[in-house]
């Protein structure tokens, strides 16, 4: 047990940071206990050590701190969370404390929330299909077990509804192994928190979920710990309890704003748009905790959700996220304005591992050919629609008109499935064939004739 050292040498407090002088033997990331003059206790973490001076980040804020009378204890260990399989079905705050009026968790283990990056040699390749029940993801931007696939949204778009839909519907196809969802909400309003909790409870999805809620009025510094705590819980359930765990983290933009706030308080030299220069490294330490391990049954799959400030995909947060992760799902304002739910724009969306989790034995033999055909036909149909707007419908050939008809049917029947419809991958593939039957057979250039003969609906 590490020796607990106590000091009364707080020299300065600014923003979420506290300076403690005259310390010795203090380490980076060490857990700190702060006792105020009125007996109130708060926690913090060592952010920086410079000689005998320690910079401590405060998780509960810095209000009402008396410099002379505040006691600071350095515990000699990092911030940790008590984990147990009993966490499934429970609700916690952003620091991992129970807030659902249920009993406290009896810990099986105490784990450091910073975790460890997965050794590349120990990684197993992600190649098992996860069915989300959302056609535009399952068929066209397939999520596989162990992947990290972010959702890029904008303010006002229904990313929360999509997150709950996936949390409710996701499962590993043809598997009787345990599946769990770890849901980390960062910087959300009370209204959003109620929506998440009520939606999960009403649908019964809460029975297999662990929910961490960090509210908008909670200290920003707590927001930085929330995804680490959620991922530590997910790793325990995956690698110790052999579960397939889907981690949904929303909103990563709020997390990055908290990083910027702390960086500014530390008076660091800012990088792009005022974000710290280590934003890429920091995000990578979170995203790279997804994966499968050789010899382990369980896995951690990530679905981070972020709102792009002003809808700008070149903003540092989506830009750097795109470099680290294996693709992105993009929500479209244009499709949302048309009333489509969910408004997923399939053309700029991408899952780099989709070909590894599809095909015979995983989904169906016609998965990849129909996927390629739909992408090609939808792109052709969008061009024909634009041509029709500029030159008039009379300028379109009969084939072009079929592509326009296909595009309308694709958006209204395939994309617009709503937030309560749960389609199996086989229902999605059958629907894709129905829509492809609008096109002349000669236009199905990405599908082999034997598959067309087998699956294409026969017209009367």
UniProtKB/TrEMBL annotation:
Gene3D superfamilies: 3.40.50.12240
Entry-linked InterPro entries: ATP-synt_VA_C (IPR055190), ATPase_a/bsu_AS (IPR020003), ATPase_F1/V1/A1_a/bsu_N (IPR004100), ATPase_F1/V1/A1_a/bsu_N_sf (IPR036121), ATPase_F1/V1/A1_a/bsu_nucl-bd (IPR000194), P-loop_NTPase (IPR027417), V-ATPase_su_B/beta (IPR022879)
Residue stretches making up the ATP synthase A/B type C-terminal domain: 357-455
ATPase F1/V1/A1 complex alpha/beta subunit nucleotide-binding domain location: 133-351
Name recorded for this polypeptide: V-type ATP synthase beta chain
Keywords: ATP synthesis, Hydrogen ion transport, Hydrolase, Ion transport, Transport
GO cellular component terms, semicolon-separated: proton-transporting ATP synthase complex
Function as written in the Swiss-Prot or TrEMBL entry: Produces ATP from ADP in the presence of a proton gradient across the membrane. The V-type beta chain is a regulatory subunit.
Name of the gene this protein is made from: atpB
């Amino acid at each position: 047990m590490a020796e607990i050292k106590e000091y009364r040498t707080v020299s300065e407090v600014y923003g979420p940071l506290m300076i403690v002088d005259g310390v010795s033997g203090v380490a980076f990331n060490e857990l700190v206990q702060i006792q105020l003059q009125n007996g109130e206790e708060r926690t913090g973490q060592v952010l920086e050590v410079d000689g005998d001076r320690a910079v401590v980040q405060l998780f509960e804020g810095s209000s009402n701190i008396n410099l002379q009378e505040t006691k600071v204890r350095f515990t000699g260990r990092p911030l940790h969370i008590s984990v147990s399989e009993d966490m499934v079905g429970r609700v916690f705050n952003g620091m991992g404390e129970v807030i659902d009026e249920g009993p406290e968790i009896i810990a099986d283990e105490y784990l450091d929330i910073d975790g460890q990056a997965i050794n590349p040699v120990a990684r197993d390749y992600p190649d098992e299909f996860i069915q989300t029940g959302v056609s535009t993801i399952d068929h066209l931007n397939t999520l596989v077990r162990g992947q990290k696939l972010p959702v890029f949204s904008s303010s006002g778009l229904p990313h929360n509804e999509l997150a709950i839909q996936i949390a409710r519907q996701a499962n590993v196809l043809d598997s009787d192994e345990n599946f769990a969802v770890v849901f980390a909400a960062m910087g959300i309003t009370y209204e959003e928190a109620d929506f998440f909790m009520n939606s999960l409870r009403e649908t019964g999805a809460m029975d297999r979920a662990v929910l961490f809620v960090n509210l908008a009025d909670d200290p920003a510094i707590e927001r930085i710990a929330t995804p680490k705590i959620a991922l530590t819980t997910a790793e325990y359930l995956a690698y110790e309890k052999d579960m397939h765990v889907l981690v949904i983290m929303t909103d990563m933009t709020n997390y990055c704003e908290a990083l910027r706030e702390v960086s500014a308080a530390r008076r660091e030299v800012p990088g792009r748009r005022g974000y710290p220069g280590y934003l890429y490294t920091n995000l990578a330490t979170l995203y790279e905790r997804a994966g499968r391990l050789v010899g382990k049954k369980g896995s951690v799959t990530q679905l981070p959700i972020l709102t792009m400030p002003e809808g700008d995909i070149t903003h540092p947060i989506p830009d750097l996220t795109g470099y680290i992760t294996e693709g992105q799902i993009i929500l479209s304002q244009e499709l949302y304005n048309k009333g489509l739910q969910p408004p997923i724009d399939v053309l700029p969306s991408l899952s780099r591992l989709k070909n590894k989790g599809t095909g015979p034995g995983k989904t169906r033999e016609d998965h990849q050919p129909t996927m390629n055909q739909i992408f090609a036909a939808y792109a052709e149909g969008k061009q024909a629609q634009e041509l029709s707007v500029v030159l008039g419908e009379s300028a379109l050939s009969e084939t072009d008109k079929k592509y326009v008809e296909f595009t309308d049917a694709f958006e209204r029947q395939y994309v617009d499935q709503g937030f309560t419809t749960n389609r199996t991958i086989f229902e999605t593939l059958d629907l894709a064939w129905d829509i492809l039957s609008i096109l002349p057979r000669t236009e199905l250039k990405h599908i082999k004739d034997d598959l067309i003969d087998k699956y294409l609906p026969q017209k009367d």
